[in-house]
């Protein structure tokens, strides 16, 4: 069942155009969002959260327009941009106290579960954390209010291989509970490990929005892994 619909999204800058971006996200599915730097991934994600205002197009969550139901919808979304870049000198426990007031679905049990899982110290500040631990801190906040959709921009950035595998396993658990997970990444092996669907964007255009199996059938050559396929496509040798 589609719980997110993005239709004909357009955003134009002097040197870049997001061009009629259209795709859907399904409940209980993990969708990997791939594309090289400046392809339009972050602009798309920020448009989905009304952090960037598109020139045209429509975005629906749970069959409700984002423009008309933004506050209600955002309570059901977990969003992470990667690292924490706000309140750098505040203790994590103080950041949490501020954050949880915005969510009537805040789950203390879930919060303490992920706090232990990510081995975070509530008494530390973001300035005292490594880049990988900052990513985990942001994910902690995104996961602790029982969001039905996780929208994550480079969530595995800065994580060591063990922590990345741990996070991907967590994604698998969450999807079993019906959570939709949409994440952008440059680490194509992460997509290969856990994604059900792939959305591939290049120069502001959606090249493919399909299941991982269909993507491989359409684009991969014999013996290629996903990373090799992606690199070849970016060099312009599309094989359909």
UniProtKB/TrEMBL annotation:
Keywords: ATP-binding, Nucleotide-binding, Transport. The keyword ATP-binding applies. CDD domains: ABC_DR_subfamily_A. Gene3D superfamilies: P-loop containing nucleotide triphosphate hydrolases. GO terms for molecular function: ATP binding; ATP hydrolysis activity. The keyword Cell membrane does not apply. Pfam families: ABC_tran. SUPFAM superfamilies: P-loop containing nucleoside triphosphate hydrolases. PANTHER family: ABC TRANSPORTER ATP-BINDING COMPONENT, ABC TRANSPORTER ATP-BINDING PROTEIN ALBC-RELATED. This is ABC transporter ATP-binding protein.
């Amino acid at each position: 069942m589609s719980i997110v619909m993005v239709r004909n999204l357009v955003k134009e800058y002097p040197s870049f155009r997001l061009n009629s971006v259209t795709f859907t996200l399904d409940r209980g599915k993990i969708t990997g969002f791939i594309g090289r730097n400046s392809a339009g991934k972050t602009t798309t994600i920020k448009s989905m959260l009304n952090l960037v205002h598109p020139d045209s197009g429509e975005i629906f969550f749970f069959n409700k327009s984002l423009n008309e139901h933004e506050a209600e919808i955002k309570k059901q979304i977990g969003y992470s941009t990667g690292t924490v870049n706000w309140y750098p000198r505040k203790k994590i426990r103080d950041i949490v106290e501020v954050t949880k007031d915005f969510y009537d679905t805040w789950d203390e049990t879930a919060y303490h579960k992920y706090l232990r899982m990510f081995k975070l110290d509530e008494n530390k500040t973001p300035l005292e954390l490594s880049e990988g631990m900052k990513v985990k801190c942001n994910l902690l906040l995104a996961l602790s209010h029982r969001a039905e959709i996780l929208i994550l921009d480079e969530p595995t950035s800065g994580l060591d291989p063990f922590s990345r595998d741990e996070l991907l396993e967590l994604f698998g658990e969450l999807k079993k509970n019906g959570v939709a997970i949409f994440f952008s990444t440059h680490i194509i092996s992460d997509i290969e490990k856990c994604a059900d669907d792939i959305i591939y964007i290049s120069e502001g255009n959606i090249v493919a929005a399909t299941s991982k199996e269909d993507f491989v059938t359409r684009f991969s050559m014999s013996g290629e892994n996903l990373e090799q396929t992606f690199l070849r496509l970016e060099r312009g040798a599309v094989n359909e």
